[in-house]
Amino acid sequence: MEEFDIIVIGGGPGGYVCAIRAAQLGHKTACIESRGSLGGTCLNVGCIPSKYLLHSAEMYHKANKEFDKIGIMTSGLSLDLSKMMSQKTKTVDGLTKGIEFLFKKNKVTYFKGHGSFDSNDTINIKSSDGSDTQIKGKNIIIATGSSVSTLPNIEIDEKIIVSSTGALSLEKVPQKLVVIGGGVIGLELGSVWMKLGAEVEVIEYMDHILPGMDKEVSDSFHKILKRQGVKFNLSSKVNSVKNNGNKAIVEFEKDGTNHNLEADAVLVCVGRKPNTDGLKLDSIGVEQDDKGRVKIDKNFKTNVKNVYAIGDVVVGPMLAHKAEEEGIAVAEMISGKYGHVNYDVIPNVVYTHPEIASVGKTEEELKKQSIEYNVGKFPFMANSRAKVNDEADGFVKILADKKTDKVLGVHIVGPDAGNLIAELSLAMEFGASSEDIARTCHAHPTLTEAIKEAALAVDKRPIHM
């Protein structure tokens, strides 16, 4: 039986990054992945293919609806969806092979198969051909990620009633798409198909979209999406979804009245659940919470001394970059170094158009914690680069401590928000004040000037508003 210093179960963003860092630190390292390709949900059926489709759909939409405004005429434009999907698959395949190359470069041993515990230091790997292999590890890290959740009495067939996975591979643009769930994934994938020509209607149980985000951001983005053509049913409960062969019927309750919607496709996006089934955690006594997540301490240790867990299987936002940070941190802690994850500075991005990005506290959280704060806001409508690019929807909003001026949270709705938030994340990591940001020279004309102006607005002294 081959022995390793570290065994990582799961080859997603948390797992493969953890394995590479462990190998860099001199450990004999193995990584087990059941999918048959590395990168996890994120790379195979999540972040990467969805962003490819978001980008492609936005380019098609602009060429189809907006280019004529700037003098670029595109008569005879057509959509070849199969070619778009083929290129998406090619892109994903290239990236997964890139991770395999990194494993070879760093001497990580890669096992294809499903890993489960035989004991606290022995993992059984069942390959796709049914054969079993056992390996031993001094330290074992659970990084098995998450999978889609659904609602009771809804059967996902990935053809008409689809999860986020099926929504990435529809064979044609549906005339009518109903999205159940107004969170990040539902709005991103709904945006893809809307930009490609579908009529999109969202059903959300809460009274607002993007639950958990800053309410002003949520309300503003709701208005933007409505202008783009998305229809919404908020405070609505889905009772059933039935497949009648060619279409689906969604029955939902709103304001005490039952409603029916007929759709060519229904996308169910109601959250994700940790992948812990099949690991045989009970056999070694690993404790889990009521949501199936693995319980860990501040050093990512479970109650079993040599077993750790990171990423979507533990408490915290189910984000690839959060999992990566935890993967590096646990590898360094096992090596006797100081691994660190600052959970107060984990950026969150919605890759629609315009994008949404946030880091730190929302106004609602600050009020709940009785923290006094000042607000600085600046609209992209007053930013010269956003205006010339005809992307002036949204704003930058900075929340700073009323006494110390330390930045506590930043929320952006607008063009390239996912990249803009990095400056604010770095500022918060170093404990910057809004004055620090305001006194930093920002290039002109750039979108980043909206950040400087929002920082100036905290002290009520913006220049261009």
What features would you describe in this structure?
The chain is α/β, with parallel strands linked by helices and 465 residues long. It has 13 helices and 22 strands. The chain is 32% helix and 26% strand. Helix 3 runs antiparallel to helix 4.
For the structure shown, list the relevant keywords.
465 residues, FAD/NAD(P)-binding domain, Enolase-like, domain 1, seven-stranded mixed beta sheet, five-stranded parallel beta sheet, 22 strands, globular
Q: Which secondary-structure class do the elements indicate?
A: alpha/beta
The CATH homologous superfamily of the largest domain is termed FAD/NAD(P)-binding domain
The CATH topology of the largest domain comes to: FAD/NAD(P)-binding domain
Q: How many E strands?
A: 22
* Overall outline: globular
At the first level of CATH, the class of the largest domain is Alpha Beta
Write the layout of secondary structure elements.
Elements: E1 2-9, H1 13-24, E2 29-33, H2 40-45, H3 47-66, H4 81-106, E3 109-112, E4 114-119, E5 122-126, E6 132-142, E7 146-148, E8 161-162, H5 164-167, E9 176-180, H6 184-195, E10 199-203, H7 215-228, E11 231-233, E12 236-243, E13 248-254, E14 257-263, E15 265-268, E16 272-274, E17 307-309, H8 320-334, E18 348-350, E19 355-360, H9 363-368, E20 373-379, H10 384-388, E21 395-401, E22 407-414, H11 417-429, H12 434-438, H13 449-458
Parallel strand pairs: 1-2, 1-6, 2-3, 6-17, 8-15, 9-10, 9-15, 10-11
Antiparallel strand pairs: 4-5, 5-6, 7-16, 12-13, 13-14, 18-19, 19-22, 20-21, 21-22
Helix pairs in contact: 1-4, 1-8, 3-4, 3-6
